[in-house]
Specification:
By secondary structure, this protein is mainly α. Helices cover 89% and strands 0% of the residues. The chain contains five helices and no strands. Helix 2 runs antiparallel to helix 4, helix 2 runs parallel beside helix 5 and helix 4 runs antiparallel to helix 5. The protein is rod-shaped and about 145 Å long.
Length: 263
C-alpha cells in the first residue's frame, strides 16, 4: 500500500495514527524498563538469600563444613550468587541496549514526525490561502460585471433620452466603457489565477502531499522495524547469559553429586 496515493486525503487520521505509534514505542520502553527493575530486584534478593545462609566464621555451620552435604550446600550458595550476577547482567543489558536506545530514538522520531506534519499543515494552509484568493478574484469579477451591466443600461437610457445633453451622454458612455474595461481586466485576472490555482491544486494533491505521506510511511515502517529489533534483543539478552547460567546450574549439580552419604 502506498500512503502517498491511497491516503492523500487522510492528513488528520495519519496524524492520529503516527501519534499512536509514538505512544506504543513509549509504552514498550516502559515495559522493558520495568522488566529490568524486576531483574535487579530479583538479583538483589537472590544475593541476600545466598549471603544469609553462608556459614558464619567460628560457628557450628563452619565446623559442619567437613561434611560433604554441608560443603555441597556452600558450593550451591556460591553458584547461586553467580547466578544472581547474570540477572544483573540481564538488567544492565536491557537498560543499555533497549531502554536507553529507545529513549534516544523516541526523541528523533518525535522530531521527524513534527517536521513532516509541520510541512503538511504549511502545504494545507498554502492551498487554502490560494483558494481564498481565487474566491476573492471571482467575487471581484462578478461584482465588476454587474457594475458594467448597470453602467451600460444607464448609458443606453441616457442616450435614448432626448432631454439629456450630449455631454452627459458622452460621460455615461465613457463610464460604461470604463466599467466594461474593469470587468474585462477582472475576467483576465480571475482566469489567470484560476489556471494558477488549478496547477497548485494539482501539485498539492498529486506531488506535494503524496511525497510527504511517503516520507511518513517510511518513518512508520522504520519505527515498526525498530520495535521488532528491540523485541528480538529482549529475547537475546536472556539467551546470551544462558551458557553462564547453565554453568552455575552445572556447578550446583556437581556439588550435589559430590555428596558421599557413607563418608
Amino acid at each position: 500500500m502506498s500512503w502517498g496515493s491511497e491516503l492523500w486525503d487522510q492528513f488528520d487520521n495519519l496524524e492520529k495514527h503516527t501519534q499512536g505509534g509514538i505512544e506504543f514505542v513509549d509504552r514498550y520502553s516502559k515495559f522493558v524498563k520495568e522488566r529490568s527493575e524486576i531483574e535487579t530486584s530479583y538479583a538483589k534478593q537472590i544475593r541476600n538469600l545466598s549471603k544469609k545462609y553462608q556459614p558464619k566464621k567460628n560457628s557450628r555451620e563452619e565446623e559442619e563444613n567437613r561434611y560433604s552435604s554441608c560443603r555441597a550446600f556452600v558450593s550451591t550458595l556460591n553458584e547461586l550468587n553467580d547466578y544472581a550476577g547474570q540477572h544483573e547482567v540481564i538488567s544492565e543489558n536491557l537498560t543499555a541496549n533497549i531502554v536507553a536506545e529507545l529513549a534516544r530514538y523516541l526523541q528523533e522520531l518525535k522530531s521527524e514526525r513534527k517536521s513532516h506534519f509541520h510541512d503538511g499543515r504549511k502545504a494545507q494552509q498554502q492551498i487554502e490561502s490560494s483558494w481564498k484568493t481565487l474566491e476573492a478574484c471571482k467575487r471581484k469579477f462578478e461584482r465588476d460585471c454587474k457594475e458594467a451591466e448597470r453602467a451600460q443600461q444607464h448609458f443606453e437610457k441616457m442616450d435614448a433620452d432626448i432631454n439629456v445633453t450630449k455631454a452627459d451622454v458622452e460621460k455615461a458612455r465613457q463610464q460604461a466603457q470604463g466599467r466594461h474595461q474593469m470587468a474585462s481586466d477582472s475576467k483576465n485576472e480571475y482566469s489567470a489565477y484560476l489556471q494558477k490555482f488549478n496547477q497548485e491544486q494539482n501539485d498539492h494533491y498529486y506531488t506535494v502531499i503524496p511525497n510527504l505521506f511517503q516520507k511518513i510511511q517510511e518513518m512508520e515502517e522504520k519505527r515498526i522495524e525498530r520495535v521488532g529489533d528491540c523485541m528480538k534483543s529482549f529475547a537475546d539478552v536472556d539467551r546470551q547469559v544462558l551458557p553462564i547460567v547453565g554453568k552455575c546450574l552445572d556447578g550446583m549439580t556437581k556439588a550435589a553429586e559430590s555428596i558421599d552419604a557413607k563418608t
